[in-house]
Design goal:
Oligomer: single chain
CATH architecture: Orthogonal Bundle
Number of helices: 14
Radius of gyration: 20 Å
Shape: globular
Number of domains: 1
CATH topology: ABC transporter involved in vitamin B12 uptake, BtuC
Number of strands: 0
Largest sheet: none
């Protein structure tokens, strides 16, 4: 086995162990002490105790939700940074979360239940993706700069719409709206659709890892090596957008995961996307599982939105990364 492959396998194994440890902590830590003998008895079907219900119906679904959302955001952030060739790019930079937020808040204001709110958020996110693509393309081919500027302006417009909705909404809906905007996971399993989207996008990204490595060297260099840069950029935009939309509909707008995790992965293991892609999924998932655990335990019995924890961690961590002159970025 080549040395690089051996190193990748070792580091991914370490990340896998960190992920497993995060799950153990998430299932163990909380305001209620768990008797694991009772949980195992419930798993065997002998009797269903409170301990079994807390672990299987509350903590485990939230941890799985957090891992899937973190993986979606970690992978979306990696792809977005390659697409825009900008280390400050994150999954929300093109306004996908803004479109989802407007649609979701309108659904909440109308009193729709959680399932319809998620469906509305998905529609808003996908509509925002289509709008960014059409506006940035104009009369001809679209460039990275035009795509970024269009996304930033559209995101500002969505932000104004969100503020307007919050002002005119009844007070009874504001708490739920704020939790959604800050990002939080629910006591429900992520389901096969979003898990399948994550797995499918991971496979597609790994197959395209060589093209992504070449694209980071410059578009002209990539074209000279036979890479269809237009097709690759379109694929990056669509896959990153769908990943972001899936994460937003599952947990709202949780920030900093897609921005910070790819940086940490590149600092630790280099910029080869054969490693960066799976490592960002594991790193993002682990980070959000731990953030979910802290959101339940820091001020228990008060439960904080998970997005608050990721912001408290992400802001100082990213500022620290910016001070590292040797930190690798997307070229």
């Amino acid at each position: 086995m080549p040395k690089a492959a051996t190193t990748f396998f070792l580091k991914l194994s370490i990340l896998g162990f960190i992920t497993l440890t995060a799950f153990v902590l998430a299932l163990t830590m909380g305001s209620v002490s768990i008797e694991w003998a009772e949980v195992l008895a419930g798993v065997r079907g002998e009797h269903l105790s409170v301990d079994y219900a807390v672990v299987v119906q509350l903590r485990l679904p939230r941890a799985l939700n957090a891992f899937v959302v973190g993986g979606l955001l970690g992978l979306a952030g990696t792809l977005m940074q390659v697409l825009l060739r900008n280390p400050l790019a994150d999954p929300y930079v093109l306004g996908v979360s803004g479109g989802a937020a407007v649609a979701a808040l309108l659904a909440m204001m109308l009193g729709w239940h959680q399932g319809w709110v998620s469906l509305a958020a998905a529609g808003g996110a996908l509509s925002s993706m289509a709008l960014v693509f059409m506006l940035s393309r104009g009369q001809g081919d679209w460039s990275t700069t035009r795509l970024l500027l269009t996304g930033v302006v559209l995101a500002a417009g969505w932000g104004a719409a969100v503020s307007f909705i919050l002002v005119v909404s009844p007070d009874t809906h504001l708490r739920g709206m704020l939790f959604w905007l800050m990002g939080d996971v629910h006591e429900s399993y992520p389901g096969g659709l979003r898990s399948g989207i994550l797995a499918g996008a991971l496979i597609i990204a790994l197959i395209s890892a060589r093209s992504l490595n070449v694209l980071t060297l410059g578009e002209l260099r990539a074209q000279s090596l036979g890479i269809d840069t237009g097709l690759v950029r379109l694929g990056l935009f669509l896959v990153a957008g769908i990943l972001t939309a899936s994460a937003v509909t599952l947990a709202g707008a949780i920030g900093f995961v897609g921005l910070v995790v790819p940086h940490l992965v590149r600092i630790w293991g280099g910029s080869d996307h054969r490693f960066v892609i799976p490592a960002s999924v594991l790193g993002g998932g682990s980070l959000l599982v731990l953030a979910e655990m802290f959101s339940r335990t820091l001020l228990a019995p008060i439960q904080l939105p998970v997005g608050v924890i990721t912001a408290f961690v992400g802001v100082p961590l990213f500022l620290l990364l910016l001070r590292r002159s040797t930190a690798p970025v997307v070229h």
